[in-house]
Specification:
This protein is of the alpha/beta class. Helices cover about 40% and strands about 15% of the residues. The chain has helices spanning about 15-35, 60-65, 85-90, 105-115, 140-150, 160-165, 185-190, 195-220; strands at about 35-40, 50-55, 75-80, 95-100, 120-125, 150-160, 175-180.
Length: about 230
């Protein structure tokens, strides 16, 4: 049975205010230039540790997951992003590095540490942005992280970010976005699964959430509500 994790807040008051300022600014810009809608936000716990997973199609994804709900999110990011200017900026927003090679032991350790402090941690279990808009298989070990976390897990599906900024395109474009948050996975349910069953559950939830987002985005664009 997973150990219950504390609900204490990790961020300082100043860090939280800085995060919310950047969040509000990004939200205003994207709502004006692109349009952002989200469904299923009631699934997100208001307090306590939570692991947030989503499909990964674009650099927009981190911003979208941050602005579509009110909680601060500490994102796991590949170490190559921690370069001059960008590195200090994303670190100030709570991001931390994980090595793609060598198993990323230090990043996994930091993930579990932050969850024990009551944070919401965001990660993209595909490991990298898709090349064709379709969700890639999850990286081995993702289910192990989820099981070790011992906290609630929510899977989100993002639609529109690939069209706006695919990895083949050097600069961001404009396209409406939709984010859907699926039903929570409890640590109790996950602890009863084998590693393969947990992996299948996570992938199924992610693919289902992405399909809902894509369907909602098509419907909203059809009726020109963006």
């Amino acid at each position: 049975m997973p150990t219950e994790l504390p609900v204490t807040k990790k961020r300082s008051w100043l860090s939280h205010q800085w995060y919310q300022l950047v969040r509000t600014t990004c939200m205003a810009l994207l709502c004006i230039t692109c349009g952002v809608r989200a469904t299923g936000r009631k699934q997100i716990p208001k307090h306590g540790s939570c692991l947030l997973m989503a499909n990964h199609a674009s650099y927009y994804d981190v911003i979208l997951l941050g602005i579509a709900q009110r909680r601060d999110v500490d994102f796991m990011a590949r170490s190559g992003l921690f370069i001059p200017l960008l590195g200090p900026m994303i670190r100030s927003m709570g991001a931390f590095a994980i090595q793609r090679e060598g198993g990323g032991a230090s990043g996994i350790k930091e993930t579990l540490k932050r969850l024990r402090q009551g944070a919401m941690v965001g990660l993209f279990p595909e490991g990298t942005r898709t090349r064709d808009g379709r969700m890639s298989p999850l990286k081995p070990g993702i289910s192990n992280i989820a099981r070790k976390a011992g906290c609630q897990i929510i899977c989100a599906g993002i639609a529109g970010s690939f069209e706006a900024w695919p990895r083949s395109q050097p600069w961001p474009g404009s396209y409406p976005f939709h984010i859907h948050y699926s039903e929570l996975i409890s640590p109790e349910d996950l602890s009863k699964m084998t590693e393969n069953e947990a992996m299948a559950c996570l992938e199924s939830r992610l693919r289902s959430a992405q399909k809902v987002s894509e369907s909602e985005l098509r419907r909203l664009r059809h009726y020109s509500t963006y």
